[in-house]
């Protein structure tokens, strides 16, 4: 029986039952009297010649089903993510630093330098505008 959570795309619970069948052609002689008494005490309709042919009737019609568990071992498997969000960022940063030579600090310094250049240009433009007004 496989059951899926509404939030999961994969199976959450898997139940497997190992089936093994075996059979005997007839009940053993030690069971015949017990089966005869059971049949005679039940509400099963008996053939008219039951007293003479009861052994043949039991051999032809007797069926026993035994359901037995093969093992009592329960196996639980749990899956968990091996990488968290922090691990992903660390790996990306490490690979970038290793192969390109750029670190997060270098990127921040580049952004700061661009900010200062743009701010300096605005100050120069503002001074020119103020100088032209005077």
From TrEMBL:
Cellular compartments annotated: Membrane
Q: State the Gene Ontology terms under molecular function.
A: ligand-gated sodium channel activity
**Signal peptide start-end:** none
Membrane topology classification: Multi-pass membrane protein
Q: What are the alphabetically sorted keywords of the record? A: Ion channel, Ion transport, Membrane, Sodium, Sodium channel, Sodium transport, Transmembrane, Transmembrane helix, Transport
The entry sums up its family as follows:
Belongs to the amiloride-sensitive sodium channel (TC 1.A.6) family.
| Protein name listed in UniProt | Uncharacterized protein
Q: Which organism is it from?
A: Rotaria sordida
